[in-house]
Design brief:
Distance between the termini: 68 Å
Structural class: alpha+beta
Shape: globular
Largest sheet: 7 strands, mixed
Strand content: 35-45%
Length: 482
C-alpha cells in the first residue's frame, strides 16, 4: 500500500542507520515537465513528464552504493536501502583507496524560485503556450528581408521540480523551482547564391511564463532573424593573419563553460569522466597557477536570482556560494562534491547536482560567467587597428582535455582603425585555453553583462543540467587566423 513519500524518506534514513551505514542520503524528487513544439508554424507532438521517486545513496566501509525507487511503499524503500548498502560494502572491499566524504556544515533550509501567480508552468494552459509560439513564428514568416527563411523551429520546455533531502548527519533541505526554456532554430538562405546560416536561440530562467515578456522575446527574435538575413546576403570575407577580437556575451559564455567550467570539474580532473566526456588539462597541483591575464575572473554562481542553474543548497545539502574558478587569471577553485573534496583534502564547493531521483549527484556547473571589468564598449573598439567584433557563434569545437578549441562567428563585423565596419563571414577564433585567457586585455562593464541558457550534458546515464553562461564584452589581442 502506498505510503507518504516524505515519511519514506525519513524511514530510509532510519533503515540505513540500522544497517550501519557511515552515511545515508535520501532524496525525494517530484518533477512535472511539459514540452510544446512548433515547426514552420505547425504544432508537433509535445511531451508530458510526471515523475516522483526517491534516490538512496550510502557510504559504508569506503565504498558508495546507489539505488532508487518510484513505487512509494515501505517494502520498496527497504529493498533500495539494502541494495545501496550491499553495493557500498562490495565496492569498499575492492578499493585500495577508500571513499570518504568531506566534513561540511549541516543545514536545515527551504528555498524556492517560482513563477508569478497564474504564470507558473502547471497553471498555464497548453493551448496558450502553443499559441504564443505560433504568434512568434508568424512574425518571422512574414518578415521582409533579402533572404529566405525556410525553416523555423521552436520548442518550449517548462517544469516544476520539488526536492526533499535528508541525511543521517542531520541535513534537511526542501526546495521548489519553476524553470522555463525557449529553444529555437532559424535558418536563412541567400536566394541568389544558396549560401545559408543557422541561428540557435536558447533562453532559460527560473520562473514562469512571464519570462517570455522579461526577454521581450518577439522583438528579440525579429531582430535576430533580420540580422541573420543580412549575414547571408551582405557579409564579406573575414580578415586573416594576426588580428584582434572583441567578443560578446554569447561567445564569452560558451568559452567560460567549455574552456574553464568543464576542466574545473574535480571528477574530470581525477579522470573519472575520461571514458565518457574526456579529461582535463588542469590538475590539482595547478591550483594557484596563472592561466590567464589579470582581466580574467571566471565565476560559477548557483545563487544568481532567476538564473537557469539556480539553487541555494546542492543535492548533498551543502550551502552554495560563488565559486571563483579563475581569479584574476589564476586557477583558484574546482567544482567539488563531497567525495572529490575529501579525496583532495579540501571542502565541497556545493557542486553536487543530480537530474532526477534516479541519478547520483556529481560535480556540475550552474551559472558560469566572466566577471565584468571597467571598460566602456567603445574603449574596446577604439584602438583596434584590424580585428573582428563577434557578437555570437555558429559552431564550436574543443578537444577532450579542454585545451585546443575553435569558435566560429555568426554575427560578426570588421573592425578597422577603431571603427566597426561591415559584416564578415564566419570569422574563427582557434587557440589553446591558456593562450585564449592570456590574451584578454580588456573586459566591459557590468551594464553589458548578459546570459544565455543551455542544457549541459554529463554522466552515464546522461544527466542534462540546466545552466547559464555569459559575460560582458571582452577584447582578445593577437589571434592568429588562417
Amino acid at each position: 500500500m502506498p505510503t507518504d513519500p516524505y515519511d519514506l524518506v525519513e524511514k530510509a534514513i532510519d533503515e540505513g542507520q540500522k544497517l550501519e551505514a557511515d552515511y545515508i542520503e535520501a532524496r525525494l524528487v517530484s518533477t512535472n515537465a511539459n514540452t510544446s513544439i512548433l515547426k514552420n508554424g505547425v504544432p508537433e507532438l509535445g511531451g508530458i513528464i510526471r515523475s516522483k521517486g526517491i534516490g538512496i545513496r550510502v557510504l559504508k566501509d569506503g565504498g558508495v552504493g546507489f539505488a532508487s525507487f518510484n513505487e512509494m511503499t515501505k517494502d520498496e524503500m527497504n529493498i533500495a536501502v539494502a541494495f545501496a548498502t550491499k553495493m557500498a560494502e562490495a565496492s569498499g572491499k575492492r578499493r585500495e583507496k577508500k571513499i570518504l566524504f568531506s566534513e561540511e556544515d549541516i543545514h536545515e533550509a527551504k528555498f524556492q524560485a517560482i513563477g508569478k501567480s497564474g504564470k507558473r508552468p502547471l497553471e498555464v494552459n497548453p493551448e496558450e503556450k502553443i499559441n504564443r509560439l505560433m504568434d512568434i513564428d508568424k512574425l518571422l514568416a512574414e518578415l521582409k528581408t533579402d533572404a529566405i527563411i525556410p525553416f523555423r523551429f521552436f520548442q518550449m520546455n517548462d517544469q516544476t521540480i520539488e526536492k526533499y533531502i535528508l541525511t543521517n548527519e542531520g541535513a534537511k533541505i526542501e526546495s521548489e523551482i519553476d524553470l522555463i526554456q525557449l529553444f529555437g532554430i532559424i535558418v536563412a538562405v541567400n536566394p541568389t547564391t544558396g549560401s545559408k546560416e543557422q541561428l540557435m536561440v536558447q533562453k532559460g530562467k527560473a520562473g514562469g511564463f512571464e519570462s517570455l515578456d522579461y526577454w521581450n522575446i518577439e522583438d528579440y527574435l525579429v531582430k535576430e532573424a533580420t540580422t541573420l538575413g543580412k549575414i547571408v546576403t551582405e557579409s564579406k570575407e573575414a580578415p586573416t593573419g594576426t588580428i584582434d577580437y572583441v567578443v560578446g556575451p554569447n561567445v564569452i559564455g560558451i568559452m567560460c563553460h567549455e574552456n574553464t567550467g568543464h576542466p574545473s570539474e574535480a571528477d574530470r580532473i581525477l579522470g573519472r569522466e575520461g571514458a565518457q566526456a574526456g579529461e582535463s588539462y588542469l590538475n590539482e597541483e595547478m591550483i594557484g597557477e596563472k592561466i590567464g591575464s589579470e582581466h580574467v575572473t571566471i565565476i560559477d554562481d548557483p545563487t544568481l536570482e532567476g538564473s537557469y542553474g539556480y539553487y541555494l543548497y546542492d543535492d548533498e545539502g551543502v550551502k552554495a556560494s560563488p565559486r571563483y574558478l579563475h581569479r584574476k587569471g589564476v586557477f583558484d577553485e574546482m567544482l567539488h562534491n563531497r567525495e572529490s573534496a575529501a579525496f583532495m583534502g579540501t571542502n565541497s564547493t556545493a557542486a553536487a547536482r543530480a537530474i532526477g531521483f534516479n541519478r547520483e549527484p556529481i560535480p556540475r556547473m550552474a551559472n558560469t560567467y566572466l566577471e565584468p571589468g571597467n571598460f566602456e564598449f567603445d574603449e574596446l573598439i577604439e584602438d583596434v587597428k584590424l580585428g573582428v567584433l563577434m557578437h555570437n557563434f555558429t559552431e564550436w569545437n574543443i578537444d577532450d582535455r579542454r585545451y585546443q578549441s575553435k569558435y566560429v562567428g555568426l554575427e560578426a563585423y570588421l573592425i578597422e582603425n577603431g571603427e566597426v565596419k561591415h559584416l564578415v563571414r564566419r570569422p574563427v577564433v582557434e587557440t589553446t585555453t591558456p593562450k585564449l585567457w592570456g590574451s584578454v586585455d580588456a573586459v566591459a562593464k557590468k551594464d553589458l553583462l548578459e546570459f544565455d541558457a543551455a542544457t549541459c550534458g554529463k554522466g552515464d546515464p546522461m544527466q542534462g543540467a540546466p545552466v547559464y553562461h555569459g559575460g560582458s564584452f571582452m577584447r582578445i589581442r593577437n589571434v592568429e587566423v588562417r
